[in-house]
Amino acid sequence: DQQVKQNSPSLSVQEGRISILNCDYTNSMFDYFLWYKKYPAEGPTFLISISSIKDKNEDGRFTVFLNKSAKHLSLHIVPSQPGDSAVYFCAANIYNQGGKLIFGQGTELSVKP
Amino acid sequence: DVKVTQSSRYLVKRTGEKVFLECVQDMDHENMFWYRQDPGLGLRLIYFSYDVKMKEKGDIPEGYSVSREKKERFSLILESASTNQTSMYLCASSLFYGGGGDGQPQHFGDGTRLSIL
Q1: Which ranges in B1-117 belong to alpha helices (H)?
Q2: CATH topology of domain A4-112
């Protein structure tokens, strides 16, 4: 039972354009969502998060949007840079499970110069 | 900055061996986690711990055990290594999250690439 799904295994974008990474979830008890970025041979690094009481959170070039009615969140990167090429994971937290995260399968972003 | 340190970056072991993966965090975090990452499957939780000497099974605990004798250290043990346990293993830590919507991100180590021959 995959509670957090990233249906696109890969995405290719031109440098300077917008990258949009998508994530769907099934559990309405999730109350906190996160995006992580992972380079090969390194651990994931936290990128940005959003509380379920918000619909948008912005940090520099990165914006996360949450649509609770559709159980969908997305990460926008504008403008995309070659250094953004990595695997991106979305994750969700259930409020009463103390910090346990459920991760999606990941989307590999490639930003072409 | 939070530092999560995994004892080995690369490890090669033989089938049937008992394997220990060690993880240390320096931020006095209550929570610690062990994941494995496999292509197309994302990060899957093996075990986690909310406090010293406490442990909870994750989604794929079979073939693994854990030990948390001190708050900063969380060990993953492969009781009898098998080839299907060849994977990237990731340790993470976080503060305890009691709800409210502004949670606590997990901080990851750089991973251990384990090969079982």
Answers
A1: none
A2: Immunoglobulin-like (2.60.40)
Q: First-to-last CA distance in chain B? A: 37
Q: How far apart are CA A16 and CA B19, in angstroms?
A: 46
Q: What is the DSSP string of A56-99?
A: EEEETTEEEEEETTTTEEEEEESS--GGG-EEEEEEEEETTSTT
Answer yes or no: are the C-beta atoms of B51 and B69 closer than 8 Å.
no
Nearest to A99 among B31, B41, B43 (CB): B31
Exposure of B64 in the CB half-sphere (CA atoms within 13 A): 27
B31 touches chain A (CB under 8 A): yes
Q: State the CB neighbour count (10 A cutoff) for residue B17.
A: 13
Per-position pLDDT tens, chain A of length 113: 679 999 999 999 999 999 999 999 999 989 889 999 999 888 999 999 999 999 999 999 999 999 999 999 999 999 999 999 999 999 998 766 767 889 999 999 999 99
| Identity of the residue in B40, B41, B103 whose CB atom sits nearest the CB atom of A93 | B103
**Structural domains in chain B, sorted by start:** 4-95 (2.60.40.10)
On chain B, the residues whose CB falls within 8 A of the CB of A43 are 4, 90, 92, 108-111
Question: Which burial class, exposed, middle or buried, applies to B67 when counting CB atoms under 10 A from its CB (0-12, 13-18, 19+)?
Answer: middle
Q: Hey, is B56 helix, strand or coil?
A: strand
Chain B residues within 8 A of A101 when measuring between CB atoms? 33, 45, 106
